[in-house]
Amino acid sequence: MEVLTDVLYGDANCDNKVTVADAVAILQHLANKDKNGLSAKGIKNADCNEVGDGVTAKDALAIQQYDAQQITGLPV
Known about the structure:
Layout (H helix, E strand, L loop, with lengths): L19 H12 L1 H4 L3 H7 L10 H11 L9
Helix pairs in contact: 1-4
């Protein structure tokens, strides 16, 4: 069992950075979970827009907005 601690909102690929690569990881996960699934920690980190509603395309959009400095922080 994976212990989930220290959430870094937006870090879907768990590389300790929030970049467009995380948005891509989310979209790949949504398109094909069997081939491109996120880890349990990645799923927790990915849920950064409307926290608690699960991983959605809105999370990928929030990460892109954060990376483009359109918003100043996550979660949204």
